[in-house]
Amino acid sequence: MVRNYAKLQQMIDQRERHRISYWIKLIQDVMVELEEEAEGRQEMPFEEFQKWARALGIEKGWAKE
To answer: Which of 3, 22, 35, 56 has its CA 20 to 30 A from that of 13?
Structure first.
């Protein structure tokens, strides 16, 4: 998880420009890695989930859908 997340964060910080499809794929990769990591733990405090959701730009409305 750290590798793709770090790459994404660095790209955002450097205000890199890429095709929309590239950003979507990278964000999906980060989310898949987070999900795989979560499966191993099965549980996490809501506050930790909120931290990841904020970092990935997930808004409250998405979780309700």
So the answer is: 35
pTM, rounded to two decimals: 0.56
Phi, psi of 35 (to 5 degrees): -65, -45
Amino acid identity of residue 57, one-letter, is G
Buried-state track 15-24, b at ≥16 Cβ within 10 A, e below 16? eeeeeeeeee
| Alpha helices for 1-65 (secondary structure H) | 2-13, 20-41, 46-56, 60-64
User: What does the pLDDT look like over 2-48, one tens digit per residue?
Assistant: 678 888 888 888 989 999 889 888 888 888 887 777 677 667 778 87
